[in-house]
Amino acid sequence: MIKMLHLLLVTISITGFIGRIILSETQSPYVKHKVVVVFPHVVNGLLLLSGFTLVFQGQWLAGEYGWIVVKILALLGYIALATVAMRQRGRNRWLAFFGAMACFTYIAIVAVTKNALFFL
Questions:
Q1: How far apart, in whole angstroms, are the C-alpha atoms of residue 99 and residue 101?
Q2: Where in the chain are the domains?
């Protein structure tokens, strides 16, 4: 049940991020709407809570846990790049956006494979 909630929150979070980038790029007045500003923080807070719940519920910290540490580091990279993407314009926005999407993709693949070095 927690895993399904986590996956739903991941989907909502990434869709919201892409949507906010589109709204910001088109200079929509909705980008400053209170719901658009606050809702991502609520979703991402619940996403982190469900992620930590899964880690402790699955007892993944009892064994090999390097992949979890790498996911957390990649998450920090995603947050930093997403923040830059939301605040910048032009080339910097798109470089940060694609960097954030690369981090998101890496996090997803590591979550599925449980292997931080899946590409080797």
A1: 5
A2: 1-58, 62-120
